[in-house]
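Thread: Newbie trying to understand structure tokens

Hi all, I'm a second-year student working on a class project, and my supervisor (Dr. K.) asked me to get a predicted structure for one chain before our next meeting. I've only ever worked with sequences, so writing a 3D structure as a token string is new to me. If someone could post the tokens and maybe explain what I'm looking at, I'd be very grateful. Here's the chain:
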Amino acid sequence: MAESFAQFAEANVSTLALITWMGFRKMAIPYDKEVRVDGRSGWSLKKKLKLVADSITSFSYLPIRFMSYLGFLVAVLGFLYAGGIIINALNGNPVQGWSSLIVMVLVLGGIQMVMMGILGEYLSRALDE
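---
Reply by user tm_fold:
Sure, no problem. This is what the structure looks like when written as tokens:
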């Protein structure tokens, strides 16, 4: 197993997830955890959060797809808000000032997020190959 693990040269990877991904058989080794006598653990909160981020981004498309879906939702909300503004304007109650700016920010921001998600999908598939 050590030889197989040494073949990977990734800089930011979850070691535990990589060992699981390699397909080796797993088994539990029971032991009694003793109280730490000296010092403190090297696993700070920052290191634990980095491990979570590396685990999610190394073995999952979830963050990329989440960005695409969120962008689509933001763009749809922008279009719905624009529709509401138009309906209010036709009923003689126009909203002054910032409405057009908010609509443009929502719609363009949402479209940009969708496009970045699509680019991320292409990049992740290219890296998989």
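A couple of things are worth pointing out once you decode it. The chain has a mean pLDDT of 82. The two ends are 24 Å apart (CA to CA). Feel free to ask follow-ups in this thread.
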